Amino acid sequence: MKPFTLLVGLAALAVAGCAAFFSVTGLALLFSGASLAVMVMGTSLEIAKLVSASYLHQYWHTTNKLLRFYLVSCVLTLVVITSAGIFGFLSNAYQSTSLKSDVVSREIGVFQSKITQNEQQIGQLNSQMGNLQQNSGTLLGSGKVNNRLIRSIDNRDRQINKLSTKMGVLNDSIAVWNIKINEIKNNNLDLEREIGGFKFIAEAFDLPINSVVKFFIFLLIFVFDPMAVTLIIAFNTALQEDRKKKPKKVIEEPTIGISIEEDTDQMDKNYEIYGDEEKNEELVENTTNTFENTKETVSITSKAPYYTQPDFDWDNKTLWINDRHAIKYWMRMYNGNQKQLDKLKEEDFKSKTY
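Above: the chain sequence. Below: its structure as tokens.
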């Protein structure tokens, strides 16, 4: 296996494993009443999905059409189920953070509404004070000073002082509530960091934060599990290519050596043991006549088949298409199948002329 093929395989297992984990966990969260059973079911389906994808890639041409259609449908359906599980996992993760953020927002909202009410009251008191001060200035500017005018001005001054006191109390309350808001924010800085990126994107595009989160989740599920399946198929393809480029091995059969002198000596010993010297002489004479032109050891060597030679031309089908041993070798070494063989035989038959 080449290093790149191994890298593809590891990447496929990593992506498929992560997708399976997110999917199974998400399905367990969706069906929390029977989470363990759902996790077992989801794990088995994830394994079956990857095995089915590999099987379809390797045996596509030899698989029955009905079985092929069913397996493709199952793989696509399981991809959708896995994506739904991933969506459930990611949305649940966001919801847990979003609920905490909502609680914090409601706490801040309570104080913020009080601050708004106080600010409105302060605005009303300011307008009242402005009217009283304006009336006092008008009375003093008329030039007619008497006891009644002085008492009226004193009353207006007392009212202005009361209004000022109320405004001071309201401003103090606003300051206290702002401090509480800052304390709540400081206590939830980690929560702000978790969803801060989504808030920034939502504010940049003037969209609700929930819409931004859904968009990112859909992007992830459209890439995650389909990428796992395609990487598994790519790994199978790389393995097949590696097998095709693998150097062919020349199978050599052992050499059998036959020595006339050793064979004759053995026969002499056998016949001397049994005391039949005449038969021994006759057999030696026949053996000598058979190998009368041979004085050295004769070696019978079985040469390697022609189709195992490195320079054998497999494109020339007439050299091997009718040799069953060559066909078996071709199927084993070049991943051939019966359908491809029938096609080659049909082409060879059409090319012949009579």
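The mean pLDDT is 77.
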